[in-house]
Structures are given as structure tokens and as C-alpha cells.
Amino acid sequence: MAKTLAAAIMILTICTLGSLHAALIDNGGGLVYDTDRNITWYVPNLGPMTWSQAVSWVAGLSVSNANVNNVTGWRLPSALNQDGTGPCDGYDCSESEMGHLYYTELGNTAQERLANKGPFANLRKGNYWTALEWASFSGNAWAFGFEFGLQGFADKTLAVSFFAMAVHDGDIGASVPEHVAVDIRLWNRRNPMTYRTRGILPVSILSTEDFDAPDLIDQRSLTFGATGHEKSLAFCDPRPKDVNRDGSKDDLICYFYIDKARFKCGNAVGVLKGETFDGTPIEGKDFARILSCK
Hints:
The structure is a single chain. The protein is mainly β and about 290 residues long. It has two domains: about 1-170, no CATH class; about 180-290, Immunoglobulin-like (Sandwich), CATH 2.60.40. The chain is built from four helices and 19 strands. It has helices spanning about 1-10, 50-60, 95-105, 215; strands at about 25-30, 30-35, 40, 90, 125-135, 140-145, 150-155, 160-165, 165-170, 180, 180-185, 190-195, 200-205, 215-225, 235, 250-255, 270-275, 280-285, 290. The chain is elongated. About 40% of the residues are buried.
């Protein structure tokens, strides 16, 4: 039975048109960030490999590696559902990490040929190994087919049409952003917010001796929310303020739509991202207290 399903996964072929989901952000260098799951994908141009070879590859990737900005902690994708249940066996398994990518982010349809690779230039029309071994037989491991969207288990020794991609928790960018100090609800230390409201939330970006926020930041680039990629900007105050009370009115205050910031119960940090006029990425974080969660 295991060999039969393995063969079924192997014979999957090409793809159908889907729409690219806005939650995928191309960070360059083969790194793609999924804001829905808060994970970064790395899909290099690799040849076919067995499950053991895939495990060895991702283990080597987690040693200091210039191809991924020397970031450690990479792993093979999980076949389990987001809530830890499963794994789902068959088509429409959209809760696993690769299933979510295939169906939700890339918008592909089960049992139809994959056409939409989105920003993944090296995505193969084949099967990709997960980190999960099959509980009933240690000689098999779970895989996901990027041809027709089938998730199932296969013989670990198979290599033809089997590949590997890596995933990392969080946003692994192509360049390290410059840290800026931000203050959410600058007049309230507890930073309360009701995520269901349609109001606006003030966030100040503080200047330092070496960083003049109003003059250097491209306000049009600012995003703010649970991950920092949410396009929630309402407007920025045209006049700088002295938020940090250092005697200089050099702090930038911007306002963001709370409902577009995509906060939810369990979030504890608000993240602001953007760029300076010369293209340098910036990032700042502050404590956030989410209300109305009971």
C-alpha cells in the first residue's frame, strides 16, 4: 500500500493558473516570507533526493550558510495541520505548511495542473519531502505534490521527482533592517487596543542623534501591525513632536488603521516596518495589549 501511494505521488505532472496571495513577500535571494503563517520559505535549485538526503541538506543549511544570510534554525516543512492535528491525507490538505502555500497563498486547485509558482522561481513540478515520518512504518515519510496538490506518504528511498525546500519561523529578509525606537499609543504605557475597532492608532518613531526620523523616513513605505507587513497607514503628522521629551521636536507620529493591522488575541507586539529615502529598511517593535479577547 505504501509503495502504491508513493507511485501515485510520483506520477503527478504540471499546473493550473491561480492568483498570487498578497501575503507572500519576496525578500530576494530565494527567500519568500508568508505573513499569514509568519514563516520564511527557501526554495533553491536542487536536484532530486531521498528523504534522508533532504534531512541532511536542511541540517547543513542550519549551519552558518551565506546563501541564507548565515541564519540557522532551518527545517523541513511540517505535514501537520496548523493546530497540530493530522496529518491530512489526500487532496485539499490546506492546513499543512506546504498545503497552505499551494492552495491558499498560490491559489492552486486540487487535481488540476499547477501553473502559479508566484515568486518561487525554482519551485519544481514534483514532490517535496516534509519532516514527518509515517507513524505506521518508519520506512515512509510524508510528502506534498506540487503538481496536483496531493499530500501523502512515500518510501523514503525514492528520489526521482522528490525534492526538498526549507522553512524558518519568522521573517528572514535579504537585508538586515536598521532598528528604530517606536512607541505605540505614546501617552499610555500599557498600549491597549481593541483589535475589532475601526479606529486609528498613533505610533511614534523616535529620533536619535544619528537618526532624524521625519527627514529620513519615506512615510509612504510604512507598514504596521501584527507582523509589520500590514498596509494599515492612515496618515502621518506633518509636524514633528517631542515624544521622548528630550527637548527636541524631532519625533515622527503616524496613525494606522487598527482593523487593517490584523491584530488578534495572543499577539503581544506591534511591528512597524518601512524604508528610508535611500532604500535602507527599518524596523521597530513595541509592546501591545490586545483587549476584548474573552
